[in-house]
């Protein structure tokens, strides 16, 4: 039985959207979408992916659809889930309808680490990188606590106030303030070490890496868009720290 071309396009775009929203590279998204179409018998599919939108069409018909990409986070579990479903469809283990229904369940059902563990891990990353960058062990505990609180602040600001980059600004503002306070109370020694370590969980390292990979793969628009977003994120962090030093720098 011939599969609906509209359903095929919806399935390809849904798979691509999930991958793009969770940190996949553009070439990987396009390859997955085209492979799903090819396995459905549409060898002449055309896909065009950017950081903010996906376009998909079929050469054998006039069907074409567009899908927006809103949030962009890093969740490799969802990318793995989409790849697994795509392979299952390629191996004829599931039908296109089953693939579409399974893809709709990826976002709500894919397991993720509990938030308390993410906060704890942010503290571990902050304190260990502080040591690697030449910090003192005396600052280890303070950096751990400040890193946890900064990561927690970013999460709650993003949840309460949906303004892009504001979460990074508020988190870095808190990190800078707590770092100065810790040194002034003599529970830590070096403000620079505290700040450098505590902001590490906020730095958009994966976004910068994917930006360069997209540019090198020839996807200049997506690479530039991702790079711009990473630069604005880094700028928000820097402005937050600079604001603290401007207002309270004399305390240290």
Q: Return residue spans where pLDDT drops below 50 for at least 5 consecutive residues.
A: none
Instruction: Give the number of helices.
Output: 11
Secondary structure class reads: mainly alpha
Sequence of secondary-structure elements: HHEEEHHHHHHHHH
Q: Please give the largest β-sheet.
A: 3 strands, antiparallel
Could you give the order of strands across the largest sheet? 1-2-3
What is the count of distinct domains? 2
Rounded to an integer in angstroms, the radius of gyration calculated over CA atoms is 22 Å
Strand content: 5-15%
Count the beta strands: 3
In whole angstroms, how far apart are the ends? 73 Å
Shape: elongated
Helix content: 55-70%
Q: Please tell me the overall pLDDT.
A: 88
GO biological process, one term: succinate transport
Membrane topology: Multi-pass membrane protein
GO cellular component, one term: plasma membrane
Pfam families: ThrE
Could you explain the architecture of this structure?
This protein has 252 residues and is mainly alpha-helical. The protein folds into 2 domains: 1-111, no CATH class; 113-247, no CATH class. It has 11 helices and 3 strands; from the N terminus they run H-H-E-E-E-H-H-H-H-H-H-H-H-H. The protein has helices spanning 5-21, 26-39, 76-90, 96-104, 106-109, 115-132, 140-160, 166-184, 191-198, 205-216, 220-248, and strands spanning 45-49, 53-58, 64-68. Strands 1-2-3 form a 3-stranded antiparallel sheet, with helices on one face. Helix 10 (205-216) runs antiparallel to helix 11. The longest helix has 29 residues, at 220-248. The chain is elongated, with a radius of gyration of 22 Å. The protein starts with a helix and ends with a helix.
């Amino acid at each position: 039985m011939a599969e609906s071309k509209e359903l095929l396009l919806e399935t390809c775009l849904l798979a691509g959207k999930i991958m793009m929203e969770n940190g996949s590279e553009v070439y990987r998204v396009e390859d997955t979408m085209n492979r799903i179409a090819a396995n459905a018998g549409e060898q002449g599919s055309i896909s065009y992916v950017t950081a903010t939108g996906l376009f998909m069409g079929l050469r054998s018909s006039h069907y074409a659809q567009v899908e927006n990409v809103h949030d962009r986070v890093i969740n490799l579990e969802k990318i793995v889930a989409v790849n697994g479903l795509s392979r299952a469809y390629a191996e004829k283990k599931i039908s296109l309808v089953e693939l579409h229904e399974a893809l709709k369940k990826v976002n709500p059902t894919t397991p993720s680490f509990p938030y308390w563990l993410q906060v704890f891990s942010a503290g571990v990353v902050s304190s260990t990188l502080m040591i690697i960058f030449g910090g003192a062990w005396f600052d280890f505990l303070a950096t751990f606590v400040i890193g946890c609180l900064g990561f927690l602040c970013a999460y709650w600001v993003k949840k309460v106030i949906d303004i892009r980059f504001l979460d990074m600004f508020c988190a870095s503002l808190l990190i800078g303030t707590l770092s100065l306070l810790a040194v002034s109370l003599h529970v830590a020694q070096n403000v620079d070490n505290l700040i450098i370590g505590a902001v590490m969980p906020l730095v958009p390292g994966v976004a910068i890496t994917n930006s360069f990979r997209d540019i090198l793969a020839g996807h200049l628009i997506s690479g530039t868009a991702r790079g711009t977003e990473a630069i604005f994120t880094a700028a928000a962090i820097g402005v937050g720290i600079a604001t603290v030093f401007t207002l309270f720098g004399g305390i240290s």
